[in-house]
Amino acid sequence: MPEPSSPRRRIAAKLLVLAVPAAAFVAQAAGALLPNAPLLLAATAASLAVEGLLYRWQPGMLTLFAKSHADITVRHVLRDLLLVVGLLRLGEQHRENQYAPLIAGLLVFYALHCAIQAVSILVRRTRTLPVVTRNIDASALRLSRAPATLLRRPGHRLMLVGLPATAGLTATAVGDDPRWAAAGVALSLLLALTGLGALLLRLLPGRRPADEQEVLDWFDAWLADYRPTVGLYFSGGPSSAYQANMWLEPLAKLDARPVIILRERFMVPKLAPTDIPVVCLPKVSTLMRLEQSTLQVLIHPSNSGKTSQVLRIPTIKHTFVNHGESDKLSSCNPYAKAYDEVWVAGPAARERYALAEVGVEDKDVVEIGRPQLDAVRPYAGPPAGPYTTVLYAPTWEGWDGNPGNTSVVAAGENLVRALLADPGVRLLYKPHPLTGSVDPRAGAADLRIRELIRAANRRR
Asked: How far is the C-alpha of 263 from the C-alpha of 460, rounded, in Å?
């Protein structure tokens, strides 16, 4: 069965990914200690290739290495250290004095790597503003492009900047010519110094962006000039952006001055394309500045821990619209009574809140329909084309373990098989994004349904 075997395959794949770089280091150590120049060369090349493949295909495994205190810096130092050991073992006795400057240069290179990392943290702090925006003219804040990726990501930087030194040491171990190692170490030192200089330039007074107080004054001025009236407030994890995205189009159609208020910096690029001004306010103290704004209503598509922070602002009416409605009682959360109003699609949702008895009074429930469905055309007779399009959009399993929350586990596969068996049916499958996050059976059924659809597409 796919359920038990899939986790085993994932564990086996992870163990294989861990074993390959470990084997490369063992082979490199054997080549250095024997000593054996061809083995040392092959193992070093394999180790570098594995590093590149990890960054390209298995970035999640890098976190596992870091948790094991074997991050990129440790691995790179170990690789170069084994090369130095190989040089000393392979070289003649009188060559040891020639290798001493190379080792010193290598140590200076790693010191520069640490210096670049320290300065990059300082640069990042100067660029971390209390307000992040989209669709707003922020040229007054003297913003500039972020430093190159190599200067911001220590793993990539050490791999590429240190590659000349590693290659030079390897060539010297094979060819017994110290000039290759000297050239490689010198090039790595030059690249490191160039990167350090580029970062230090960003710390000069004229190159820094506006400080925190300047940004806050600018934000207050923008609020006073734009005078927003309605806002969408959202906070959540990286996978929850869909909950806000589904309300962007209805918000843009309002006859008002809308604004989107986020709390997590990583959420800003995850928001779908929109012309609405977007502001991200990570700090509570910055969020409280909205109390002096013209905002009248904040729409909340989800509950989160940070929702309680904005509910403290008494000058704004807070409405809960949810990010989707279903016929399960778990959609009626007791937290909803913290809002001024709960906006629902229609009478069925109103009835669910009454049955759930979660403290939401009927006078606070407002029926607004489902604005996202405005583009759906009303029924105008049976389909005239060769295909009948069927949408299967099951909800997820929920938190309460009720087996009736989702149809995916009990009926999903049979339903999809029956629909796909009809050549006149075009099936659209749109499961809830969190399907399988609580009940593994739902996730497994979802995968099987997707495979059924792929197989039907191949047959067609």
From this structure: 46
- Closest C-alpha to 367, from 355, 356, 391, 351: 351
Convert the pLDDT of each residue in 85-116 to its tens digit: 988 888 765 566 778 888 889 999 999 999 99
Global model pTM greater than 0.85: no
Longest pairwise C-alpha distance within the chain: 94
pLDDT in tens, 395-418: 888 877 777 788 999 999 999 999
Q: Is the dihedral of CA 397, 403, 405, 411 positive or negative?
A: positive
Task: Return the CATH number of the domain spanning residue range 227-373.
Answer: 3.40.50.11720
| Domain extent listing, the chain | 17-129+146-206, 227-373, 388-459
Question: CA–CA separation, 246 vs 371, rounded Å?
Answer: 10
Query: For 328-359, how does the pLDDT look when each residue is reduced to its tens digit (9 = 90+)?
Result: 666 788 889 999 999 999 998 899 899 888 89
Q: For the chain, state the CA radius of gyration.
A: 30
**Residue whose entry in the numeric block shows the structure tokens 């939401």:** 360
CB burial string 257-296: b at 16+ within 10 A, e below: ebbbbbbbeebbebbeebebbbbbbbeeebbebbeebebe
